[in-house]
What we know:
With 818 residues, this protein is α+β, with helices and mostly antiparallel strands. It is 44% helix and 18% strand. The strands form six sheets. A seven-stranded antiparallel beta sheet has the order 1-19-24-23-22-21-20. Strands 17-29-28-27-18-25-26 form a seven-stranded mixed beta sheet, sandwiched between helices.
Amino acid sequence: MPQTIEAGAYVAKPEATSITQCYHCGTHCLTRTISIADKVFCCEGCRLVYEILNENGLCNYYQLQSHPGLSQIKSIRSDKYAYLDNEDIAKQLYKFTNGDYTIVTFYIPGVHCSSCMWLLEHLQKVNTNITESRLNFTTKEVTIHFDKNKISLRKIVELLATIGYEPYISLDEADKKKAKNYNKQRIYKLGVAGFCFGNIMMMSFPEYLSFSTGMEQQYAHLFRYLNLLLAIPVFFYSSSEFFATAWKGIKQKTLNIDAPIALAIIITFGRSVFEILTNHGGGYLDSMSGIVFFMLVGRVAQERTYKSISFTRDYKSYFPIAVSVITADGIVSKKLQDLKEKDIVQLHNDEIIPADAVVLKGKPNIDYSFVTGESEPVQLKENDQIYAGGRQVGEQITIQIIKPVAGSYLTSLWNHYAFANNKAEQNNAESGLHILSRNFTYLLLGLALCTALYWGFHDPSKIISSVTAMLIIACPCALLLAATFTNGNILRILSNNGLYLRDALVIEQLAKIDYIVFDKTGTVTEGNQNNIVVSGHQFTEEEKNLLFSVVSPSKHPYSKMIAAWLGSRNRVLINDWKEIPGKGIVVWYGKIKIVVGSADFTGITNDQDKDAKATVYVQIDDNVTAFHFLSVFRESVPQLIPSLAGRYQLSLLSGDNDKQKVLLRDLFGNKSELLFGQKPIDKLQYIESLQKNHHKVMMIGDGLNDAGALQQSNVGITLADDINNFTPSCDAILDAKKFDLLPSILRLARSSRIIINVSFGVSVLYNTIGLWFSMQGLLKPITAAILMPCSTISILLISSGVSSLLAHRLHLSLKTVD
């Protein structure tokens, strides 16, 4: 969208300069002065990493991929990981220890290429006290074996941080119990079912083709008993999860989606055992094992898509594992769980406020963007109250805890009743597939009872054969397979296009959506990009060189943006340089005074932009230049919002002020509701009010401040620039680079119901024909054995083929994204 710029202002554009890339990370170098031989680095950190790798003979790291490293511009405080010297804290992270030999696993967000894997698996060359290191590239987790008597956990973490792979350590990681090995067990079950299914099918050919004569018939009895032997592990092991889930539903007086599957498995296995033991036929063991195998294939494929993505993160994933507490004996590290009221905590730059507190010392500059959505830091003073979840930006401060962690404002977001509801169970209960399969099961059992009563009066010898044939041939497995493979294929297509759903039930909820609510900061607008509009005095070349030398040493984001705008320039020597965190920079260069910062700090009295969200002033002697940092819409948003507005009602909720209201009104139109200054609880209550008016609501947000609204909504989608970074609890994670595909994704979700209905129609036709013959006692076992797999194959072809064809027509990728 075009920006309105006042007369006299100009949009800042980077200076045209020759670009030099950092040898380590590929970042554009602002200067060529940091170098080793012919290798130039963007900062001292990148040069240090190169020196470490070079000294240990690990420079093959750079041969595997050009510029594989991550930028090291952000320095790490020397005592940042001092809390790991506390054994009580460190042992929370151990996976195993016998006092000496220790194993620990860390999540490394920075892993991105084969060079990362190569380096992280050669840590023992950097420090010989590390005996082994292995990286799981899918989950971005490195497992390290070491002797903790020779090297401490703190040293290992500092080593990882130094070489550019700082681990993500949070309270959630420390609280995690060893996960159940459920995924691996399901793989084992699938393997057993696949092996048995293939062999049962192979040994069933004599039964199908012998016609009671010939050599094949001589081995029929042997093959029947071998099939029964192979079917036993399928029935008792591979299909056990269907029985367990179905039984849970029965105990709650409901038939869940696994109940018909369990019924079909029990009937086919029971009838098969009866026929084999009484020498009446070969049974339906191939069909039974096929049902189990195909259902497990769909579920395993769905699970593996989301192996490395977490949908259920809460505040523990955001909070640190320990904090620095000031005591009579000095500063000690204390576990967050042990933090109490009146404890005095020391916080450094970029650290999280662990609990609600008051300021005792220092000048807090608190970034609450992840809690409230407000993009600008809040400047406070001593005795002011600060809230958990904010991040201190600037100098060291001292605070006193006034509420325990569990009683903080941030934690209370998760205590809201919206989080007490199990959305997955609720969606399952409301699922059309669940209702359809349950009613189908009731209808089938009713028809079977009527058939049994009919033959009881006319020919009792046909009761068992006709009823069991009905239950086998007309079980709702075809419907369930249609839904499973349709949704499974759609899940695969959606993941290929950047949308990762919690489970298949979310597809059905997506199809029902009629109202979409957007967060603003980080969702509609870029969370990490800004347009720079410059007004006032225009710099000379000498002033640009001087300003570059002033702002380039600063770590403040706006200083970095100004430095990037100025481009690569010749530095001038400045001896009198002072930065006041949260305020600005003051420099004397000879007799020239340069001040960079806010209007109050620079002494601007006629500040016409005092209410603007992000303005930095540069005063060189009496000349003043203003840098305005304006939020930028995501590239796809100007086309995305109008395309959605034609079908859905739209709203926007923002924790920011309404400075961009006119611009957003042009984008969303007059029918959409735009609300600003919204707190997290306001967003949640707004979603709830829409639902009370019978709307099905989808919320799209990106931060912790959206967690309540995401949970309350029918479908909560987190927009993530990195899907492996922290995201609040949600139903789906959407890769921000694929935001423009949202209309096509929603259309595909709506079409899934049509595809399932078509597949179900084919299944109903098949079941009707089968029931007609079964109820008359005319269906032979050989015919049923052939019809069941034919029906299954036709359903799979229809569901997978139609969904893939539709995705292709919607220009969605069918190939896996690397």
